[in-house]
Amino acid sequence: MTKLNLPRRAILAAAPALLAAPAIVRAQGSKPEKSKIALAVGGKSALYYLSLTIAEKKGFFKDAGLDVEISDFAGGTKSLESLIGGSVDVVAGAYEHTIRMQQRGQAIKGFALIGRGMQIAIAMRNDVADKVKSGADIKGMKMGISAPGSSTHMLLMTWAAKGGLKATDFSVVGLGAGAPVVAAIEQKMVDGISQTDPAVRVLQDKNEVKVVLDTRTMKGNQEFFGGAFPAACLYAQPGLLTKTPNTAQALATAIVRADEWLQTAKPSEVADTVPPAYLLGDRSAYEKSFDGMRDCISPDGMMPAGAQDNCMKFLLAGDPKLEADKAKIKLEDTWTNEFAAKAKKRA
């Protein structure tokens, strides 16, 4: 047998590359089938979608081999429409849309959770707040939501329905998220809002509104829904998950990394990472907002036990039509933990 008399220095130099080879092979084997991804979101500046912004700004999408182009719409309904129309590959939006679309015969599946609590508050302008003790008291009022059909709209509808009101008993106006929400209250364009932070927190700190229903903490979700409530997530048409599983895995891995980073990040670190405009001119309020809602961020991107049922109950309470179509809904077809679980193992 012939011996190779290689210099010791050459052997040591080659060792790291040889040891890394299996990892390189694994990485190549899981390379995204589609690296350029179009993603839609409605109201990206809201803390509701914070993990998406963190994944973008911290380079987690890039690390996963993706070039993600994000289109930001005024509300989640427009994001959903862009997915159904085929102009985007994936949406960062409310999980409840997967149920809604199944009701209409359109398969949509979520696969990476951003929020395990709703993170929406209903707040009234201070000069009318004393008149509002329950959902029944907004009759004849104008309420600001992000967009018709959005989670902010659904929470408002459910709350009003519990007070005996119909959708025609009050009016809504779509405001998007962030600065327009603050302006709408300050200029008295609306009597109240169903909205996310940081806008609600900024208005609270300015003493412009009084919160009458709050799901921005897990305690609030427990009180209103009876437990965890699936909020923002990544969802897509099933073909993305079955035909390009490595792409779906890369997306999930980036979001899970962001979820995990946010569990221990300092509020100041978060404020340093997001675009300055997201702070709405009040860094202190933004940091306070994040600190207050941190426990609503998913720790691992996975659907908590019972959360889908809580969402279904919520939708049924606000929409009698869904009750008639309940037999069509198979919650197991609206979600998979497969990709988030793999992302967690890799982390």
Task: Report a brief summary of the structure.
The protein is 46% helix and 16% strand.
Fraction in beta strands? 15-25%
**How many domains, as an integer?**
2
Number of helices: 17
Instruction: Write the CATH fold name of the largest domain.
Output: D-Maltodextrin-Binding Protein, domain 2
Strand order of the largest sheet: 2-1-3-10-4
Distance between the termini: 44 Å
> CATH superfamily assignment of the largest domain?
Periplasmic binding protein-like II
Describe the structure.
With 347 residues, the protein is of the alpha/beta class. It folds into 2 domains: 204 residues, Periplasmic binding protein-like II (D-Maltodextrin-Binding Protein, domain 2, 3-Layer(aba) Sandwich), CATH 3.40.190.10; 95 residues, D-Maltodextrin-Binding Protein, domain 2. 46% of the residues lie in helices and 16% in strands. The strands form 2 sheets. A 5-stranded mixed beta sheet has the order 2-1-3-10-4. A 5-stranded mixed beta sheet has the order 7-6-8-5-9, with helices on both faces. Strand 6, helix 7 and strand 7 form a beta-alpha-beta unit.
